[in-house]
Amino acid sequence: MIAFLRIIILLGAIQGFITSSLFFYSGKNRRSNRILSVLIFLISFASFNLYASYANWFGSTRLSFISNFVPLFMLMPVGPLIFFYVKSLLDPDFVITKKQRLHFLPVIIDLVPSLAALIYILGTMLKIFKHDPQSWGNFIDNYNVYSDIPRWISITSYLWLTARFLSRFKAK
User: CA-CA distance, 13 to 131, in Å (whole number)?
Assistant: First the structure.
């Protein structure tokens, strides 16, 4: 049964990648479809990462090493993407301005573990840091535990903002 559920996760990720590319290159509602495409891609990428970890694809030394530098799970842009997707659907002239791009600044929270791994590797190669992977690993593990708090706050806040925007739009 567990193998079946894992296959469902993989198939969902593949279907998400295909759907994401179809939305990205579709001609209708170009802005809203592109926002939706990025949203679906991020969720599919997270699902693919989940399957890959279950299937132990990162078990080899090289893939495990490379996976430390690629942010395979990015949740912080999901909230703003949902909010801007709804806005772009209801307002055909909607464009994400420079000021609105600041909503994506918390993505840095998702990038810190990859950046920390990169800094550690470069620092060790340049002999700036001593070879102590356990302390850097502990930092990344602890960081990932506590970074879930702003992720949940972000998703909750943007879902609330989206619901409020929809109710105000409906009232008009």
Answer: 37
d(CA 45, CA 85): 19
Tokens representing 30 are 């170009």
List of E strands, 6-83: none
| CA-CA-CA-CA torsion sign (56, 62, 63, 69) | positive
Give the C-alpha separation, 47 to 72, whole Å.
Answer: 9
Tell me the per-residue pLDDT of 6-27, one tens digit each, with 9 for 90 and over: 899 999 999 999 999 999 998 7
Decide if 128 contacts 105 (C-beta within 8 A): no
Q: How many CB atoms lie within 10 A of CB 36?
A: 22
Taking the model in full, what pTM does it have? Answer: 0.83
- The number of angstroms, rounded, from the C-alpha of 159 to the middle of its chain's C-alpha atoms is 16
| C-beta atoms surrounding 158 within 10 Å | 20
Asked if the model's pLDDT at residue 36 lies above 90, the reply is yes
Structure tokens given for 169: 């739009």
List Cβ<8 Å contacts ≥24 apart for 28-31. 29/88, 29/89, 29/92, 31/88, 31/94, 31/95
